[in-house]
Amino acid sequence: MSEVDVRGFRAESLDHRNQRNQRLFQLMFGLMTVVLIVPVVIIISLLVVRGGPALSWEFFTAYPAANMTAGGIFPALVGTLWLVAVALAVSLPLGVAAAIYLSEYAPDNLLTRLINLAIINLAGVPSIVHALFGLGAFVLFFEFGTSILAASLTLAIMTLPVVIVSTRETLQAVPQSFRVACWSLGATRWQTIRKVVLPNSLSGILTGIILEVSRTVGETAPIMFTGAVFFLPFLPQGVMDQTMAMSLHLYNVATQVTGVPESLPYGVALSLIGMVILLNSVSIAFRIHLRRIKKW
Amino acid sequence: MVSGKSSIKLNIEGLKISYGDHVALKGASLEVRENEIFGIIGPAGAGKTSFLRAINRMDEMTPGMKVEGKLEFNGKDVSEWRNLYALRSRIGVVFPLPVGLPMSIYENVAFAAKLRGVKGRDDLDEVVERCLTRAALWDEVKDRLDSLGSLLSGGQQQRLTIARALSQEPELLLLDEFSIAVDPVTTMRIEEVLKTLRKEMTIVLVTNLVQQARRLADRTALFLAGEVVEVGKTKKLFSGEAQDQRTTDYIEGRFG
Question: What is the number of structural domains in chain A?
Answer without folding.
Answer: 2
